[in-house]
Amino acid sequence: MSLFQAIVLGIVQGLTEFLPISSTAHLRIVPALFDWHFNYHGHARTNDPGARFTAIVQLGTTVAIVLYFWRELLHVTMAWFRGIVDKSVRTTLEYKLGWYLILATVPVGLFGLIFSHQIETGARNLWVISVTLIALAGVLYAAEKVGRRDRDEEQIDRMDAVYVGTAQALALIPGASRSGTTITAGLFRGLTREAAARFSFLLSIPAVVLSGGYEAVKKNTDGSPGAGLIGVAVVFAFVVGLASIHWLLRWLTKHGTFVFIYYRVALGVLLIVLLSTGVLHATK
Questions:
Q1: pTM of whole model > 0.85?
Q2: Domain tally for the chain?
Q3: Which of 71, 146, 242, 271 could join 130 via S-S bond, C-beta 3.0 to 4.6 A?
């Protein structure tokens, strides 16, 4: 991987992590479209930067979330720890939200461990990504149509955590989108778009930290980029991701997610055409 490619992929990660269009899919699609052939440790590789690179570069956008929501995260963390010994704190939203984030992280952790091999191999097939892009677009469209959108962040409860957390596990399939699945579940539960997005962003922190940390300490057997290039990608992902969070939350206060739905369908159809005509190869 060259420095230029690391910068581009970092920017792609920052732009797409929080939009419901799947950052993992774009990190897989962009190198395929430009026909980038990565060559690590002298071994020829496909134009897939790899699951390890994807998981670690997401840590950059996670730092962006932590910085953007640091006050809310601080209040939740302090309330959760205080609530362990002080029963009077256990009725507060912050204390409950701490437990909801933990509860909602369990499904993605379990599924990530059980299906880690499939996630790193077959699930990154471009046919899978194209179909998933279109399928989730249809589900998000249904959520926009039937969701009541009359519950704000203060009304999030345990069942919201269960539904949204289970939906987050589906984001392990490239093309589904972590923010896409969780925002969709939130809308089906009657949350406002902004409340669904904020809970989605907060929920991504433990999941991404766990997956990125796991990949960072795991022995580098797939020959993915070294720490230097990954570090460059992480920095660009952080900077662009911070701007992306701010933009999306402002957008959702006045607009729906339909622009992302149309984009997902268009990209999915384009991928199918390119794969069918041999311009792109599903596993190359």
A1: yes
A2: 1
A3: 271
